[in-house]
Amino acid sequence: MKQKIVSLLPVVCLAAAAPLFGGSVATSYKEARAVLDAGIKAMGGLEALQAIKDVRRVGAGTGYNQGQSLLPESSLTTRAVEVTTVQDFARGRSSNEVINVPTGGIMSKTRAVLTGDTGFGYNLVMKVVTPSAPGAIAGAKASLRRDPAALLLTARARAETLRSLGDETVDGKRNRVITFADSDGTQIGLYFDAESGLLTKFETLADNAVLGDAVTENILSDYRDVAAGSARVRLPARVVTKVNGDVTLDLKYSVIEANTGARDDAFAAPADAETIPPAPTGPVTMTKLGENAYLVGGGSHHSLAAVFDDHVVVVEAPLNEDRSVAVMAKIAETIPGKPIKYVVPTHYHFDHSGGLRTYIAKGVTIVTTPGNKAFVERLAAAPHTIRPDSLSREPRKPVIETFTGKRVFGDGARTLEVIDIGPNPHVTEAVVAYLPTEKAVFVADLFTIPVQGPFPPANPALVHFSDKLKTLAVDKIVPAHGRIGTMEDLKAALAVKMPQN
User: Fold this and answer.
1) Positive or negative torsion for Cα 135, 141, 143, 146
2) Sequence-distant (≥ 6) Cβ neighbours of residue 183 within 8 angstroms
């Protein structure tokens, strides 16, 4: 599950009147323009780059599961990755097909397509199409503009925002560094090898709900000559992505072809695919599970609220501050006069812990398993200067209580049990919440019940969850993603096998 990252522009103040590197903004621009022009020349020249209408790539590599590994304090788990991409610059289209094979997991095969102002995702295993949400479309457009074959032309088209940042040594080599503002406002740093003139990396700075001020680097190497009509250009055959210093993806391309005549069928949804809607993005909703228990929904990531005599316990603080603020407000509206006293994350994965800082700022106690304590402390201490949140504005240390095995919340009339059923193949410490009165269990990621469409093939994490559930009396399954279901839904999901073709 992916979380939202908001790009901002603190790298350099473009409107500042103060001197920059050469005594004036104009001098800084001229220095940057000279570096950019040299970079364009090193890649084959302006006319050659402008001659590129589309690029097709086939590659393979390794993905590193930052924020999605087994433990927050251990080395990142990995997955084998195969990609086939088509970037159609001339018509504003892209098609990115990715096969992921997690270590010990089930293969997934997806295709993300952009066609102008619309797009869709296609799950090739389940044969399901989902229309792209506005954020995904904006991201796909940005990726098209920032493709290595187009990036320098994008910078050239934004020439008034070019500024020089001087020289920097990268891996022992001198690089000339410039920056420009993309059309969506994102400030992009460009690094050029001082000797060859080639672009060695580009980077952005953005707010990340868990990491804070986060730098994303795309490191380019292994340049190859590629024919583009009668011209020839140089394009990188290896791209390494880092987020806050951690490698998250290392891809090597075996095929790079330009102007292949991007075929329309590469951007069309299969006629036999089932279409299902994307996850809802509306206001927070409260669905009663019993007299004093609610599913807090209305988005892609749900929470659970259990009400006691004088307080509320929330299970799950996903996504970011915006989500947590909305959830807190809805709980206060629905259950007035009872403050949230505890919040329990089901596991540390970034999309399920990104809203914790808001609870910490309000003095809510974090109840978690021992392996997550240092992670929560680090999350609370992360600097958020780009987009200050409530904890940045009113800093305080987190109050953390840990438990092993099971913790029971109660007031004499009702109980809520939070149980670590790990180690699970998805994450080592995996907490489910159990409401004995309602015979309901709240679960995140280990079992998702689609609102519409088929179940995915059963994976080891689901099988493990099912085995652990045998010790509980359960009638109702309440997932953090999807709809409320029953044990019959679990039985149906377990029966789905990976297609053989």
Assistant:
1) negative
2) 145, 158
- What is the pTM (predicted TM-score) of this model? 0.93
Q: If DSSP codes are grouped into helix, strand and coil, which group holds residue 335?
A: coil
The rounded distance, in Å, linking the Cα atoms of 187 and 10 is 8
Residues whose CB falls within 8 Å of the CB of residue 86, separated by 6 or more in sequence, listed in order: 54, 55, 56, 93, 94, 95, 260, 262, 266, 267
pLDDT, tens digit, for every residue of 306-345?
999 999 999 999 999 999 999 999 999 999 999 999 999 9
Indicate if the pLDDT at residue 169 is higher than 50. Answer: yes
Alpha-helical runs (H) found in 90-246: 134-145, 151-157
C-alpha dihedral, 133 to 201 to 205 to 84, nearest 10°:
20
pLDDT at 383 over 60: yes
Sequence-distant (6+) residues with CB within 8 A of 276 are 128, 129, 130, 450, 451, 452, 453
The tokens for 250 are 């290392």
CA distances from 430 to 84, 102, 214, 305, 407 (A): 34, 18, 27, 18, 13
Length of the chain, in residues: 501
Q: Quick one: which of 64, 56, 67 has its CA closest to 80? A: 64
Which residues have C-beta within 8 Å of that of residue 447, sequence separation ≥ 6?
462, 465, 466, 477, 479, 490, 493
Residue 250 β-bridge partners? 62, 240
